[in-house]
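Intended use. Records like the one below are meant for learning the mapping from a protein sequence to its folded structure. Do not use them to infer anything beyond what is encoded.
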Amino acid sequence: MTLSYLPRLLCISLATFFLVHLALGILVSLIARRAARLCERIRPRVAARCLLMLRLLPAAGAAFIVVAVCLPSYLCLEPEAPTERVGAGCLLVALLGTALWSVSIARGLRAAAGSRNFLRRCQRVGRPARLPGENSDVSMDAWIVDGAAPLLALGGIVRPRLVISRGVVSALSAEQLAAALRHERAHWTARDNLKRLCILLTPGILPFAGGSRTLELGWRKFAEWAADDRAVAGSARRSLALAAALVRVARMTADAGDTDQLAARVDRLLREAPPSPASEWAAGPRPILALGAIMLMTASLIVAILQPAALYSVHVALEHLVE
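Structure written out for the chain above:
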């Protein structure tokens, strides 16, 4: 099949993305379980960041290679011929890359639309309220809805809204409700809904295959633990109130979800000493230093890649891919 200059560039970019993403995805899947176990030894907030970075790494790395390597090589060294033949193998891999992104984007858009529709329904049938315990400087829209099912969730990304059922408000004491609200506010501060959307938008290793379940479940667990830590803020009394709220809401429904994870959260709140602000601050600079090192390595890699000899080698490899 023959393609003109820009369609050929698009085909090469999609094919390169798929191949690099596949290689990085296999590598990440091989270390996912060990990484999740190692994260048990560090602070939940840091552990959640590490697992999220691993989950996004294949797509981010493949996109970096396409933008920083393939595009400069093609634009600098490929002559603007009217048309050129593209092999069937390259076309097939490019179609797989297209399917990879199409499935993930559709999944993310479907989840975003479902969340928006859910919030609209809650606003139609519910009423705004100022709940006790919301003494934070950050304001949050809250809606109380009627219904038998217990509900306490944070919906939305740009303007998150707390949705809570009347039954939960009645069942929890003022202290328990305040602890639960602080937990949801911690999710808001951490932008966890946006991170969930990024995970949904990030492709799996292959089209129609999910992402790394180990990394995603690990991220959810540590994100919940991090929100618990932020909600209790080093207070044993708040820790007890939050644990009691979790148990009371779980008893209100026949389907409590993952009971093992719920039991682990409650046991952690009751048994472990809440993290102190000093220890949280001490763990803070480490991710920043790691991020700075990654940025420095990335910049060095870009400089090395943009050398004429490196661009020529990449161009030769792309020519073999097209054929």
